[in-house]
Amino acid sequence: MPAFIRKSALFLSLVVATPTLAQDASATLAHQTQELYDAIASGDAKVWDKYIAAGATYVDEAGKFSSRAEMIKQIVPLPKGISGTIMVETLTTEFHGNTAVTVHREHETENYFGQTLHAEYLTTTVWQKQKGGWKAIAIQALAELKEPPSISLPTAKLDDYVGTYRLKDGDPTYAVTREGDKLSGARSGRPVAILNAETEDVFFISGQPRIRKIFQRDASGKVTGFVDRREGRDVVWTKTQ
């Protein structure tokens, strides 16, 4: 067989094999990921010791940084009264040489002293092909925020919040209005949005689960302003009329 034909045949075999190899590696990583999260429920630290690389780092959904030793130390059996499962849904897997980046969603169901809780997390894991197989070298998890249930407040109570609010410096204002049993708010120059009551004096806007508008009152109970609170940080608005 001429050399150019042999080279062409080899090139073709690599092109055909590459997708298969990638599919096989993707399946392996998906399987290993599910094993890791099954081990959380069972408290089997040996699985994490097997798949977590030396020097690996982990950032959990609360922003806490852990070393390999610290993350493995956290894998212990759940206490009495608590049980659960975590199902992993792989979203993407990208390969870069001997490194792979996976993004997956974790669907957690927890039985917590007779109550059933659900949570979803979005996690990015960086894997590296090492001697002995694929090892995780970095993991970062994010909690997928959900909107809380809203409650209904009497219209008379909603009227407490109606008015115009202003920042300490600058021109922006925020107008709160009521129409029927609905409260709405809009910053100057921006669209109007429904304000949903989480509790009395605490409101949220659909699609903005990170933010709460917390209204403040003086000693007599009169609303004096509100704060936009996001991750514990406040932007203060004062009621002007």
CATH class of the largest domain: Alpha Beta
pLDDT < 50 stretches: 4-17
Which second-level CATH architecture of the largest domain applies? Roll
Tell me, briefly, the overall form: elongated
> How many domains comprise the coordinates?
2
Major sheet summary line: 8 strands, antiparallel, barrel
Query: Which percent range fits the helix content?
Result: 10-25%
Task: Tell me what portion of residues adopts beta-strand conformation.
Answer: over 45%
Rg over C-alpha atoms, rounded to the nearest angstrom: 26 Å
Q: What separation lies between the terminal Cα atoms? A: 90 Å
Look at the helices and sheets and give the structural class: alpha+beta
Lateral arrangement of strands in the main beta sheet: 7-8-9-10-11-12-13-14
Q: What is the β-strand count?
A: 14
What is the residue-mean pLDDT, rounded to a whole number? 91
Q: Return the string of H and E elements.
A: HHEEHEEEEHEEEEEEEE
Number of helices: 4
Oligomeric form: single chain
Say what the CATH topology of the largest domain is. Nuclear Transport Factor 2, Chain: A
Write up what this structure looks like.
The termini are far apart. The relative contact order is 0.10. By secondary structure, this protein is an alpha+beta fold. Strand 7 and strand 8 (173-179) form a beta hairpin. The strands form 2 sheets. The protein has an 8-stranded antiparallel beta barrel with strand order 7-8-9-10-11-12-13-14. The chain has a 6-stranded mixed beta sheet with strand order 2-1-6-5-4-3. The longest helix has 40 residues, at 3-42. It has helices at residues 3-42, 45-51, 68-73, 155-158, and strands at 52-59, 65-67, 82-96, 99-112, 115-130, 133-143, 163-166, 173-179, 182-187, 193-199, 202-204, 211-217, 223-230, 233-239. The chain is 24% helix and 48% strand. The chain folds into 2 domains: 3-143, Nuclear Transport Factor 2, Chain: A (Roll); 155-239, Lipocalin, CATH 2.40.128.50. It is elongated.
